[in-house]
Amino acid sequence: MLQILKTRLHQGHRTTGFPVQLPVLPERYRGRPQLDAAKCPDGCGVCIEACPTQAISTDGGLKLDLGKCLFCTACVDACPEGAIRYTQDYRLATSRRTDLVIGNGELRLAQRMSDELHRILGRALRLREVCAGSCNACDLDTNVLNTVGWDLSRFGIQFVASPRHADGVLVTGAVSRNMHAALLGTYEAVPKPRIVIAVGACAISGGPFRDSPDVLNGVEGILPVDLYVPGCPPHPLTILDGLLRLIGRIHEHAT
Amino acid sequence: MNGGGWLTIRQGQAADLSKIPALAADGFADHVLAGRARGGRLANLFGRRVSADTIRLYAFLAFDSASRFEVCTTDVRRGPEAQAAPAYPSISAQWPAAQAFEREIAEQFGVHPLGHPWLKPLRYHATDDGSPAPWGPFDPNRAIPGDYPFYRVEGEEVHEVAVGPVHAGIIEPGHFRFQCHGEEVLHLEIVLGYQHRGAERLLLHPNATRSAIVAETIAGDASIGHALAYCTALEALAGSRVSLRAAAIRGVALELERLANHVGDLGALCTDVAFLPASAYLGRLRGEYLNLTLEICGNRFGRNLLRPGGVCFDIPLASAERMRQRLEGLRSETLEVLDLMFAQSSVLARFEGVGALSEQQADEIGLVGPAARACGCRRDVRCDHPHGVFQFSHIPIAVETTGDVYARAVVRWLEVQRSLEFLLELLGNKPGGTIFEPLGELKPNVMAFGVAETWRGEAMHVAFTDAAGKLACMKAKDPSMHNWFGLARALRGMAISDFPVCNKSFNLSYAGHDV
Description:
The structure holds two protein chains of two kinds.
Chain A: H1 2-11, E1 33-35, H2 46-50, E2 56-57, E3 63-65, H3 74-78, E4 84-86, E5 101-102, H4 115-121, E6 125-131, H5 137-143, E7 157-159, E8 168-172, H6 177-189, E9 195-199, H7 200-205, E10 227-229, H8 236-246
Parallel strand pairs in A: 6-7, 6-8, 8-9, 9-10
Antiparallel strand pairs in A: 1-4, 2-3, 3-5
Chain B: E1 7-9, E2 14-16, E3 22-23, H1 25-37, E4 41-51, E5 54-63, E6 68-77, E7 87-89, H2 99-109, E8 112-114, E9 158-163, E10 175-181, E11 184-191, H3 199-202, H4 208-216, H5 223-238, H6 244-272, H7 276-297, E12 306-307, E13 310-311, H8 317-342, H9 345-351, H10 359-365, H11 369-373, H12 381-384, H13 405-427, E14 446-454, E15 457-465, E16 471-477, H14 480-490, H15 499-506, H16 510-514
Parallel strand pairs in B: 3-6, 7-8
Antiparallel strand pairs in B: 1-6, 2-14, 4-5, 5-6, 9-10, 10-11, 12-13, 14-15, 15-16
């Protein structure tokens, strides 16, 4: 007993002050990419060539699809002009799939759920997680929000065991053919009104497994998505930031 | 010396395909079993289509104490009538370690392992040419495992418990079917395949970054381990060797990955037996180790750090010193909690004697990693088949003997201590060299492999080139391919309420198994 108390004293209080206190991320952390098309010479497409998931296009100006981006360094390494760089901005979640395609402008971050939904779910959100063809990294960094470091339940958000107790599903993975039926079944078991959150490049677009015959390229077209959280995997902060925007606990915008 | 009919090979060496001994299909199983009699461990067994009607099987035996592997092949062909499926006598009939591998071969190519004691699908997908597998043609419209013929125990008070694929917590999908008499589990059957993404094919993707990322996402929590085995295999095909500095950074990343996962697992074990102080502290400490990896390469799971030819991020002297100081602090915080955990009789009472496997069972099943070492098997790739930095710095093998949840926890505890010591030493003493050299041309018509001791055990990537020196086939094995069967076996005779703690003590990868 004394040893437990002693350890308790040593370990201290460790919960992050987010969102009141903003976190300091290490220098090499790769957050929102920033594009500077003004630096692109005419007809250059080395970044398009280098990108492993065809997330970059020059259709109507340089564009990057955060829903496909694996946050690797292939484009940055390939570009001789320095037109693409990673910032340390961890805020990446959006409400619409189209908002994930960024150009020179700002990223339109996720909006609060509708007033009607917010009245019912906003102060106590219960989610059922469904892992549907992931590598497990998105699941682990979602699960980490339940540790004392993040203490997700202080925001009234909880992961529950049964879809019947849930207000929505949080999906990870490229939606393997073998999880399709279980994903639909779980979603159907959630009482209405219900929401869908897609976490990670796989759930949004198939990620590294896009166009494999064994996956369905994510939840797009399978379930109606309310929140997109890009990344491979997204940092826990990115997931938390997205969840808090969805329930209206964070309002400010990226610049 | 090998036994004849085998090619001796070490990781990181390329072997001419023509030098690999080819056996007659009829004698293949006996030949492999003779290798077992000489002390071989089945490290891998897989098939590869070499022509429209020929599947070539490769068997890899590890001779761990002699630091070598041996490999042989056999060709399995369609019978004279077009209907006759390709077949060979099963190895699993006499050596259970082969059971999942032979099911994989049957599922991928429609090859029949004759006499396999319990042939059933492994991952639920069609064969590569659409031919029927031994259990019939694949029907993609049937959801698994609804119509699956589970092994059933009959009897008046026998009942069945079905769990999954969607579980209670935030974990990967799999289906567990328990045959119980009261609380006692008479039999557990595990159905996997839900995470099957077709990753192996994508390892041949023409975009080299894409294929390297796929290697890292075979099992996301073992990104570094898989990337290490993958890079070693490709570097061997090109006949290149990374600098000592790159090898040291790889070693740092591999041990940080082990620390994060072992610490997380020990915390999760505490959660399952309701010792909440240690569960909370270890859950937080796991994140601290991931954050050190984030510091090195910008990603908590080590994505984008290892690439064939070296590493993409250096650890400059100043940050090495900073990391060393953080690790010193983490060491005392972590070991304090582990001391607390292992001093609780309430924790130990729930660990001891639960889910025990004997050394003999571990060998029959072919367990690897901490699960094997907990049974007294002295096997650890870092010591047995050293490559990279492990050729110069040695980590002692952590072994326990009781084979139960307690032993699997203690092995992790010991490995946490040893990895910490290893890291503190390595970070204080970092060698020179360039961190990355692009790979040259790959040698034509060769095979090479890399093995890495991931925190779960031995991951293995085998790579083949064609006559033009192009990558022709990649085979990725996660340690979970060996160990899932061990979990099913460990649960027999246990109470069903022991399942969570037993499962967590193995903590196997669904994604790595399903690829």
